[in-house]
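Self-study notes.
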Amino acid sequence: MHDDSLLTIGAFATRARLSPKALRLYDRLGLLAPAYVDEATGYRWYRTDQVHRARLVALLRQIDMPLARIADMVELPGPQAAEALAAYWAAVEERRAVQGAVVAHLHDRLSGRRPTMYEIRTVDVPEQAVLAERRHLLSDELPRWIPAALGRLEEAAAACGGVAAAPYVAYHAEVTPDSDGPAEACVPVADARAAAAWTEENRAGVVLRVEPAGRLALTRVTKAQVAYPQIVSAYDAVERWIAQEGLTITGPCREVYFADWEDASATDEVCDIAFPVG
């Protein structure tokens, strides 16, 4: 190869201030392919205009950007790449804030520090017909799925005599970054017959079931306390109270949303953390 516009991997590595090992890795990951590879010798050659891309990939790797996002980033024009970088880093900072809150919660639990006090009570609920939509999903999907699912069910309830009680989300198993539930969005309806006809006609992943009358042990939380992991403290508090009272949990835990989420402030009470008990 005698093309003066190309650099050997060693010369290119020096120009890009990277090691040949890093360049081979970037090639293997599909992030920076050589301009030319000699089929007989396997020698790699690079163009000088690839230096910017090589340095960019190296910097993005330093902030732990996923490889798939790096591959997209390096193909974008400068302004769009800057916007993509800002969006990625905002998500990183949000994730770190949540992780910091989790660490603080775990530290308090492990050190035996007195947890936030919650007022816990029981309420009796009547039998009610509910439209329900069940989904296996991870915790990072919940903030989008819950309002969308409840919105769909409330729209359906309008054709079934209206919403009869506060909507809620029941958790049949843990929903975490590793466990996918399932979770079930539920909206009580006023007219069970109309709801049965609606589900038969639409068959849109929505089922009608009858929730039996029973008792809930619950605590009321503010909009700020719904955020993870603060909400975990509320669940823990209700479970401890149930055990202390000698009661038995008889069904999946739930979050009952009785207030307008969009209009509520951080200090407004919006949700009951509840367990069916017997």
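Second protein, same conventions, sequence then structure:
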Amino acid sequence: MREFAFELRLCAHLEASGVPSVGDAGIVARQLGMSVHAAGGRIVDAVCVLEGPEFDARTDLTSETIPPAVLDADVPVGEYERVTRVFDGPPERARTLAERGADTGFLDLDRRGGQTVVRQHARYPDWVGGLVGVENKPDLGRPGDLEAQLRHDASLADLDYAVLATESHVTRAHLNRFPDEIGVWRVDFDSNEPIDVVREPEPLDSAGSGLEVLDSEPGKTNVRPVAAAEKARQRRRVAERAYGKGWRTYDLPDCARIARGEEGDAAALPFCAYKDRLVDPASECGADCPGYEPADAPDADLDAERERNTPWNADAGGRRRQSGLDQF
């Protein structure tokens, strides 16, 4: 199975059935950056955000990602403060960040004494119970940078658990090449129990410091220490991005050959009758495909499907605009 299709089906399964030996998935998202210092340096295929003690408060807060700069700022709860005192940088940047926070529904804006003021209308909740990262490699015969990616996850440890998921037969030689902390799943979507746990993941030291692998070459690996506080901020950013993004980040193409599934975890996955498999609409569909037949895209509300299958609330604060916001 191609990696994109494997990734979609695994995300759907984790959302419905939870993470083996760990717990309910809570929120599942695809393609999230875990690096702290190397922007875009490590993209994890799937991340499950486990439910923390105040998960319900997060689902009521906003349906969208709260911008990291908004969460990093010391915005008071309940009491208004001038945006220029809350956000660092020039006044225009401060107002822009405040407006972005208000657009999500997390902040309230007002005008008082000729100044723009801001507050949190609710305290940011303790909603994350843990992060589980899954690297998808259906074919271990084409590993790419797999070993380096898994070493990065184990060394940085801004995930609580890291797992490799594959369709290949996993040998002892494979296991010996991967860090001991990394769990391994063999996946067969035609089985009644699609995930066979070959090796349980061990808890990573997500609360402590870590080492981020920046780059490597023969005989040399460049790393950078990451403090516990830096990891905590990155974990919050990843969880927020996962909450706002989810894993249904594709559009069904405008082709008569595309049909959504009828049941189970394939309810709105892009299945192509011409290719007889799931396809990546962004790279495989369109006029260049010999099987392309122009038609309206299948009727599928991916937000509604996400809401039916997860605790995510599509109508929480991020879907409405604050009263009077348009005057800023």
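Instructor comment on the second fold: The longest strand covers residues 43-51.
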